[in-house]
Structure formats: structure tokens, C-alpha cells
Amino acid sequence: MSAEVAAEIPKGNGWEPNILAFCCNWCSYAGADLAGVSRFQYPPTVRILRVMCSSRVEPAFILKALKDGADGVLVAGCHIGDCHYIDGNKNAEIRINNTKKALAKLGLDGRLRLEWISASEGLRFSEVIRDFTEEIKKLGENPVKEVKK
Amino acid sequence: MSDIKGTENKSTVAKDSDEKRVGVFVCECGVNIGGVVNTKAVAEYIGTLPGVKVTSVNKFTCSDSGQADIQSKIKEYNLNRVVVAACSPKTHEPTFRACIEQMGLNQYFLEFVNIRDHCSWIHMWEKEKATEKAKDLIRMGVERSKLLEPLQASEVPVTDKALVVGAGVAGMQSALDLADMGFQVYLVEKEPSIGGRMARFDKVFPTNDCSICILGPKMVEVARNKNIKIMSYSEVKAVDGYVGNFNVKIEHKPRYLDVTKCTGCAKCSEVCPVEVPYDFNEGFGTRKAIYVPFPQAVPLRAVLDKENCINCKACAKACQSGAINYDMQPSYTDLNVGVIIGAVGFKTYDPEPRHDFGYGLYDNIITAMEFERLLNAAGPTGGHVVRPSDCKEPIRVGFVNCVGSRDKATNIYCSGVCCMYTIKNAQLLKEKRPETDHTIMYMDIRTPFRGYEESYNRSRNLGVKFLRGRPVEVKEDPVTKNIKVRVEDTLAGEIRNLEFDLMVLATGIVPNEGIGQIQQLLKLSKAADGLLMEAHPKLKPVDTTIDGVFLAGCASGPKDIPYAVSQGSACASRATILLKNKKAITEGITAVVNPDVCVGCQVCIPMCPFQAIKMDEKEGRANVVKALCKGCGTCVTACPTGALEQSHFKNAQILAQVKNVFRFQEVAV
Ligand SMILES: Cc1cc2nc3c(=O)[nH]c(=O)nc-3n(C[C@H](O)[C@H](O)[C@H](O)COP(=O)(O)OP(=O)(O)OC[C@H]3O[C@@H](n4cnc5c(N)ncnc54)[C@H](O)[C@@H]3O)c2cc1C
Ligand code: SF4
Ligand code: SF4
Ligand code: FES
Predict the structure, then answer these.
(1) Do B541 and B567 contact (CB within 8 A), yes or no?
(2) Nearest to A61 among B523, B610, B655 (CB)
(3) Which of A112, B182, B424, B489 places its Cα 20 to 30 Å from the Cα of B608?
């Protein structure tokens, strides 16, 4: 993207997005713990919500989050093959991809991410948050959220 | 400790037993949280939330005084929900569950909020934002806590038998300890003999005692122990169940001979016309297509390698016991065990594909494992270290440390044992042939633990030279086949050109083949080094996140023999807690069908990875079998009518967090 275009994007002065991250208990939550233990600094834009498996994340939760103040939603689970419940993450993948399509129709493209982050990938966890934060900054504030913080 | 909100409602006893009375305990974790998050401001804010009757800040909430504070406030404020904002629930959730349970509260009325690993530690220089974030996280927790429901953890019986996977020195130790405590042990080893890596070494550091002389008797002890059933040349194919009650399928690969008839006399090998490189000797020398793995093998039985067999049937004629059976098929055993110990060991880094330091390009560069076999009196050369190009005994030997370790291009971690085994190997050859000249090229020499530094000093006294630096160029002299090395001596600050007759690479410890399969079968995680991950690196070094599954030896990180053996014993001791108590506690989190809402559409049934949902044909409703349900929630998300709920992760409970994460929107309770 050219510098001019980048400058156009409403970033606000130091505007920081709100990101809600659903993390599965076994891999991604533990990956976030490891990022902490390793002191890998990342932007304070994300709030983590623990679920047992990525397959527990319902589209309704995502929509609710976007309505209630989130600029982006991350769903994070174990790598394919590593799900604590065999293939919960495969179900999550299907569901989240469908939700992404629905969001695109609402003009909310790019605000939902699905990532596989293992318990040993503390560094990757911090990188994903940093990267997603930058992406959402480029997109600017979520237009459908009802309450702005 | 300081109460922030303690004036209100002290005497009001909850009239309505449904009234949610929340106490919030914010931990400073010394300065870990308190040094970043303004805990006082957080507690003040949280105290304004409806339903919060008291907030309290403690230096260490997990300490005795911290827990006493929780317990006294439960009494004083008649609390029925407790929120602890501290470290990770992975560390202390059980602590606080037990703490509130002692006060008569259901343990699931605890909500744990992570403001350390997920907040103060990762926003160390953004104190204000971290404080705001902590408020958000705790608000989510408070709102969720109001909707928590009581649950019962369930007790499951434990089968008092153990499975040990991998019969290296670590797995053997686990098996022996458990068997000596009276438990039945199945010891599964994928190779035709037990013993692992240690069976191949000549001598072992730091004392340089003969490896097989100390390992051999242990192997025999394992074989003789009536509580141990060795399943060699076998692999785990499927694992099902949970702590206390694992159902495991073992595949026995065909040896193409009847082990009950074979005596291990090796007459068959004598007549077999096929010769292939001998894997046990790292490819040096040859073995036959039918062979006894090595002289001390346990079980001492032959094995026929079908891939290389030419079907001449000479062995069948030679075998006096009539043991050979060319049509043998794999066979299977189903086991039911209460605990599983994973001790699948490691392999060494392979320098061939990248031609590290010329390996694979020049004959006279070998790995340490190859060197170990050459040194071994029972090895391919009867203990004479020779160089591959001309089978001459070398005079000048160079050793390169950290090959495949401590290197961004391969593995960044330290393999822990290579300094010591290189020191050992140089010493051993120097002692055998004092005319030899040894140079160890190293990055750092690491010799912790008893006797290790002494061993290092000994090798210096013997005249082994230590050069700090890594070869930058390795070439072969086309005529002599000697190895010419350019290396920067970083201590002297000069480039040195050295010539060796033989060069040995200290290749590091990497995950074994098949570790991925074991990881997936046992539902474990891998650490960054690719080896299996323990539950906690410090406090639970042999436990895993899966109850009833333990790890010993190099399967969970580089280790030397004493460390691997200690872990083998540690696993046995951890496992005994379950085996002896004959029961284990499992989480009460499961899916539940609301029969009034379920329409019997059966959408949920194929979603469950554990076949835990059955149709109640009579009622036309789905039903979750609690003992099979593992509580993932997959089915809950799939149910179109909302009839399925996951206890402790109900829709309303999760939505309470979602609604309140970025602003306050109290939920109806
Ligand atoms: C060159 C070299 C020299 C060394 N010298 C010394 C020394 O002098 N002193 C010292 O203290 N340490 C030494 N070590 C370290 C030592 O080798 C290890 O500490 C030790 O072998 C670890 O034992 P283990 O049981 O964990 O693993 P291993 O010895 O690797 O045993 C693992 C066993 O599990 C089996 N297995 C693997 N996968 C499966 C599966 N899927 N199913 C069933 N079975 C499976 C393997 O076949 C093997 O028998 C040296 C290491 C190297 C590389
Ligand atoms: S929660 Fe998971 S394990 Fe339990 S019934 Fe539903 S899908 Fe099966
Ligand atoms: S998906 Fe829901 S409604 Fe359909 S059978 Fe299962 S529990 Fe009943
Ligand atoms: S448990 Fe992590 S994705 Fe299923």
C-alpha cells in the first residue's frame, strides 16, 4: 500500500483497537501463558476469553462481540491434528470460515481471524496479536459496534 | 492486605439465597503484577460493580495469609462467588478451588482471571493500559462468576496397571520401580531389543564405566521381573479412554519366527547369504537379513528383516528349533491400563542433508555416535578407532561441538550432553592410544553436575586441546583424504589452519521418529524443540497436561543418563499415587441436553469425537453419556435448538464475558 493511501486510513491519533480472543484451553491459552512467562511484549489491545476447545466458539459470540465493542475477533486453537478433542478444530475451521463469509457481506471483512497456536508458540502468539492489531488499525474502527470506548 | 471495599453490607445476610455476592481478590504476585498494574485502582473500580461485596489486594493471594483472607471474607461477607485475579488458572486454579471448597462453597463458584501472564508480564512498559486491561479482564470474570453453577467433579476408578512406552534406560527404570511396588507393567519397545541408546555406548561419562556392564544387568532384571511384560518389536497403535482407564492397542510386528521356540543361538544368521549395513553399528560393518540384534539383546531372540530377505529359506533349514515362520502376520494386544509413561527417547541430529562441516562429502568425517561404535570393543572394529577412507588408525583427531545445536540454522537449543560425551570420547581414545592428538573445537564448554568439571580437567591433564571457535571452512586433501579446517581461535583472536586424520561431529539430540504419532495418540503438546512437553517446566517436570500420562528421559528434552533415570523413577512415583489410590478425580465439565428443548434432530450425534451422544429412542431425545463426554463443547455449538449446553461454559456464561469485555453491560442474574 502506498504511503498516501496508508495516510488516508482513519487510524485516529494513536487509536488502539479492541480485540477479543477466544483461546482453547489446551494449546492457545497455554501459548498465551508462555508469551507471558517469556515476557514477549505485545500491544495491550487484546482480551483473552478461555474456552475448552476452539469448536465451542459460536458465530453468535463473534457477532455479539463485534456489536458490543470489538474491532476484531481472534479464534485460536491447536494445530490441526493436535486438538485435545481429536478434531474439534476442524469443526471450528468450517464454522469460522462460514462466519467470515457472512461478516464480509456485512462489510466486516478482515475482522475475524482463525489461528492455530500451540502451547509452545509463545512467540507466535505475540506476533499474531501484533500483526492482527496492525491489520485492524488499517481497517479502522469497527463501523457496526454500538458502543465506542 | 488491604480491603478496598469493605464498608458495605457487612451485616446483611443474603436473604434471597439467589443473590450473587461476589468477592474479588486481586493478587500483586510480589512485583510481577503489582509492579505494572495499579492494583489499588483496579480494586476500587471493581468494587463499584453490582454484586461485588468486597475486594481485596494481596501481595501473594496463593500464600497461606492470602488464602486465609479469602476464607475470612467468604464468612464475613457471606460470599457465594469468588473471583481471583492473579496468574494462570493452569498454575493455581486447583489451589483456590480447594480454598473455597473448605468454606463450603462449590469449587466451581471460583472464577480465575489471568492478569499476570496475559497482562502485566506482556505490557511491562505500558502501566496505564495494563491497568485498564486488568479492569476489563476482571469485569468479564465478575459478570461470568454471577452465572456460575455448582458442579460435581467425578471420581473414576483406576486400573492398577501401567503402560511404559519406550524401553531405554528411562523407561526401564520406570518399569522396574512400578513392578517392584507390585504393579503390573507392560513395557512396549519398538526395536527388537530393549536398552535404547545406552546399549550402544562403549563407556559413559562422567566416570567412564563400561556402559553395557551397568545396563546389561538392568535389562536382565527387567526381563526376569514377573510383574513386567516386555513387548519388544511392538508399537502403540491406538489409545482411547482417560486417566485410570486407558484402552490401548499394541501392534506386534512379525519377527517371522516363533519367539517361544527361538533360543537366540544365531545359527540362522550364520547361513543367511544376505548382508546389509548394520544399523546397530551406525551402518558400519554388516549384519544378515536374519540376526540377533546384539549379543546382550533382551529378549535374546533373532528377527528376520523381511525387506532384505531373498526368501532362500536357508535359515529355516538351519534352525534346529523349527522357529522360523515366513508367513507371520502382525498381531495385536488390547490393554487396559490406568497410567501411561512415555519414554520414547531421541535420535541424533543428522548432518547428512546439509553436509554440515563436510559430513557426507568427505569420508573421514563421522558423527559421535559412529565414533562411539568404533570405540566399543564389541563394535565393528573390535574397539579400534579407524578412519573410513583407509581403515588406518588416526593420530590427529578433531572434534566439532554443537553440531545441530545452538545454531539458528538448525536447532537453537543446547543438547546438554555433547560437551561431556566429546570430552569422554577424546579421553577414551587418548588413554587407549597416548600417541593420538585431540583438539575439541567448541563454543562454550558446559559441565554442570557432580564429576563433570573433574572429567573436563582430567582430559586437559591428559593433553586434550580445547580451541574456542567453530570451523569456518572444511576441506579434504584429495590425496591423503585428511581433513583441513580453517577455524577462528576466538580466544587467541587468530585464524588457525589445522589438519586432522579424522574429524568427529558432536551431533545434538533431536526428536525421535514417530514422536508426532505418540504425541497425537496421547494428546500431548510439543515444546519448541520438537520434543514432548511437560505440564510445568519446574514444578511438574514429569507430568503432562493429560491426567495419568507422564514423561521420562530424552522424550521431553535433552538429558544425560542420571537425569533420565531420575525421571524414570519420578514417573513411577507420580503414577503410583493414582495406582495405589485406585481412583482419580476428573473435571465435572460435560455437555448436557435439555430434554424439553431437544427435538431429536440428531445433528449433534456425529459431531462428537468420542461417540458420547446417544439417542433415547423411546423419548426421541438425545442423551449425553457423562462417562464418555470429555467436555469439548463441539456438539453444543452445533445444536440448532440450543438444547445442548456445556456445563461451566454455558452460552450465558460466555456471553456475559463477551458483553462486558469492552464496556459494562450487567447481565441479568
Ligand atoms: C553420542 C552420545 C553419547 C552419549 N554419552 C553419554 C554418556 O556417556 N553418559 C550419559 O549420561 N549420557 C550420554 N548420552 C545421553 C544418553 O544417550 C541419554 O541420556 C539416554 O540414552 C536417554 O535415555 P532414554 O531412555 O530417555 O532414551 P533412549 O535411550 O533413546 O531410549 C528410548 C527407547 O524408546 C524406544 N522408542 C522410541 N519410540 C518408540 C515408540 N514409538 N514406541 C515404542 N518404543 C519407542 C527406542 O527404540 C528406545 O529403545 C549420550 C548421547 C549421545 C547422543
Ligand atoms: S461436549 Fe464434546 S465430548 Fe461431550 S458430548 Fe459434546 S461433543 Fe461429545
Ligand atoms: S442437536 Fe440438539 S436438538 Fe438435535 S438431537 Fe442433539 S441435542 Fe437434540
Ligand atoms: S482443544 Fe485446542 S482446538 Fe480443540
Answers:
(1) yes
(2) B655
(3) A112
The pLDDT assigned to B669 comes to 57
Cα separation of B659 and B653, whole Å?
10
Residue B546: count other Cβ atoms within 10 Å of its Cβ.
19
Ligand 4 pocket mutation pick from A33, A51, A53 by most atoms within 8 angstroms of CB: A53
Prior bond of B299 cis (ω within 30°) = yes
* Identity of residue A57: V
Q: How far apart are CA B456 and CA B464, in angstroms?
A: 9
- Pocket residues: Cβ below 6 A from ligand 1: B 165-171, 188-191, 196-198, 201, 204-205, 235, 343-346, 348, 368-369, 372, 417, 421, 424, 512, 514, 518, 553-554, 559-561, 564
Partners of A126 on chain B (C-beta within 8 Å) are: 122
Instruction: Tell the residue nearest (CA) to atom 5 of ligand 1.
Output: B421
Q: How far is A2 from chain B (nearest CA, A)?
A: 30
Q: Virtual CA dihedral for A52, A56, A61, A62, nearest 10 degrees?
A: 100
- Mean pLDDT (chain B) is 94
Percent of chain B with pLDDT over 70: 97
Cβ–Cβ contacts within 10 Å for residue B403, how many?
Answer: 25
Query: Is the shortest distance between the CB of B624 and ligand 3 below 6 Å?
Result: no
Contact call for residues B448 and B560 (beta carbons, < 8 A) = no
Q: Are B176 and B218 in contact, with CB atoms under 8 Å apart?
A: yes
Nearest-angstrom CA–CA distance, B617 and B420 = 67
- In order of start, what are the domains of chain A with their CATH numbers? 20-139 (3.40.50)
Read off the DSSP letter of residue B359: B
Burial A16-53 (b: 16+ CB within 10 A, else e): bbbbbbbbbbbbbbbbbbbbbbeebebbbbbbbbbbbb
Listed in sequence order, the residues at least 6 apart from B304 whose beta carbon sits closer than 8 Å to its beta carbon are B255, B256, B257, B268, B289, B290, B315, B324, B326
Report the alpha-carbon distance of residue B558 to residue B560 in Å, rounded: 7
Answer yes or no: is the C-beta of A76 below 6 A from any ligand 4 atom. Answer: no
Four-CA torsion B574, B579, B580, B585, nearest 10 degrees: 80
- The pLDDT confidence band at residue A146, using thresholds 50, 70 and 90, is confident
ipTM value for the complex? 0.92
Nearest-neighbour CA in chain A from B369: distance (Å): 29
Ligand 1 centroid to residue B178 C-alpha, Å: 20
- Give the 3-state secondary structure of residue B175: helix
Rounded to the nearest 10 degrees, how much is the dihedral formed by the CA atoms of B313, B318, B323, B328? -10
Whether pLDDT at B627 is above 80: no
Instruction: Return the H-helix or E-strand segment holding B653.
Output: helix B651-660
* Lowest pLDDT segment from B7-16, B383-392, B524-533: B7-16
B1 contact A CB<8A = no
Which cell is B4 given?
A: 478496598
**What is the pTM (predicted TM-score) of this model?**
0.84
Looking at chain B from residue 125 to 154, which residues have their Cβ under 8 Å from any Cβ of chain A? 125-126, 129-130, 132-133, 136-137, 140
DSSP B536-595: BTTTBTTB-SSTTEEE-GGGGS---HHHHHHHHHHHHHHHHHHHHH-EEEE----EEE-T
Q: Which residue on chain B is closest to A69 by alpha carbon?
A: B662
